[in-house]
Design a protein that fits this description.
Layout (H helix, E strand, L loop, with lengths): L1 H35 L4 E9 L5 E11 L5 E2 L1 H11 L2 H19 L6 E5 L2 H4 L4 H12 L6 E6 H5 L3 H13 L2 E7 L16 E4 L1 H4 L6 H16 L3 E4 L5 H9 L4 E2 L10 H11 L1
Parallel strand pairs: 2-4, 4-5, 5-6, 6-7, 7-8, 8-9
Antiparallel strand pairs: 1-2, 1-9, 2-3
The structure holds ligand C2E and magnesium ion (3 copies).
Protein name: PAS domain S-box-containing protein/diguanylate cyclase (GGDEF)-like protein
Organism: Pseudidiomarina maritima
Keywords: Membrane, Transmembrane, Transmembrane helix
């Protein structure tokens, strides 16, 4: 009886896995269609300087709505696009689009745009040149662009990584470490990296108004970052209580639903007109 049941479970598991595989094949070709049809979108989420209350940067976040109206979350399609290599053309599109849109934001102040990168993009030998070319084509000053890299990309800590980061720094492109604290990297390696910003992941922010350990960790990160001249941004801030605590701990910048959700360019312009 037990054996039979086990077998049934296995078959159900296998069937589900198979469905999953087929769903991914379909999703993959639909995503390719979206790239080819120029149907991807970027939404922008403001990052606020706690000191001045102004928007300093907006983060570009990719959005994909299928022709039949399904919203697929980046948590789903980004890993898929990374596994198929489609993140290369999609990421290039995002960079170019962000560098085009950032011009429309300048009437509201010197707003910078931050673009997320995948490891696959960053490790391409021609990546630096590609960024330079996009800046040129779109007539964008380098210091209006920021790049967000995850800890896992930086942790490899190879000479190549440091070299590329150094080149970005020299031309004035700021680099931020995204999702900081989720990659088990330890703090000492930061000293070696030519990066100018650190984004504390939402998992440390969620309960920060109540959790003594989250407060201690965040205080430590902020102290260390300040000493090596890095700016600290708290991600996923949703409440005033979190902001009050983060301010107390010396955090300089805030991003989260409390201020604004990611939004299309036209909506962002209305937001900036009111807040910048
Ligand atoms: P991320 O770079 O850490 O972006 C922040 C994510 O947190 C976004 O999710 C944003 O919508 C969400 N968020 C912002 N404030 C809050 C808040 O107060 N509460 C909560 N619960 N969430 C908040 P999103 O847009 O779903 O993107 C998820 C991830 O997908 C991004 O995380 C990034 O890693 C990746 N991604 C998005 N666009 C791109 C892209 O163009 N290229 C690459 N390589 N990755 C991207
Ligand atoms: Mg990011
Ligand atoms: Mg993040
Ligand atoms: Mg994240």
């Amino acid at each position: 009886q037990a054996k039979l049941q086990g077998r049934n479970h296995f078959q159900i598991y296998q069937a589900a896995n198979n469905d999953n595989y087929q769903a991914n094949v379909i999703l993959r070709s639909e995503f390719q269609q979206a790239i080819d049809d120029d149907a991807l979108q970027l939404h922008y989420q403001p990052i606020i300087d706690l000191h001045s209350g102004r928007v300093v940067t907006v983060e570009a976040l990719m959005r994909w709505i299928t022709p039949d109206g399904r919203f697929i979350s980046p948590g789903e399609f980004i890993p898929l696009a990374e596994s198929t290599g489609q993140i290369i053309p999609a990421g290039r599109w995002a960079l170019r689009k962000a560098c085009t849109d950032v011009h429309e934001m300048q009437q509201f102040g010197a707003i910078r745009v931050a673009v997320n990168l995948s490891a696959l993009q960053f490790h391409r030998a021609d990546f630096f040149d590609q960024v330079q070319q996009i800046l040129e084509e779109t007539g964008t000053p380098a210091d209006l662009l920021e790049l967000e890299l995850t800890e896992s990309i930086l942790m490899e800590n190879s000479n190549h990584t440091i070299e590329v980061l150094q080149r970005f720094k020299e031309v004035g492109i700021r680099v931020a470490i995204d999702d900081f604290g989720t990659g088990f990297s330890g703090l000492s390696y930061l000293k070696k990296l030519p990066v100018s910003k650190l984004k504390i992941d939402r998992i440390f922010v969620q309960d920060i108004d109540q959790s003594a350990s989250d407060q201690a960790i965040t205080a430590g990160v902020i102290n260390m970052a300040t000493q090596v001249d890095m700016e600290v941004i708290a991600e996923g801030v949703e409440t005033l209580a979190q902001i009050t605590m983060l301010k107390q701990l010396g955090c300089g910048y805030i991003q989260g639903f409390y201020y604004a959700k990611p939004m299309p360019l036209e909506e962002l312009k209305v937001y900036l007109a009111q807040h910048a």
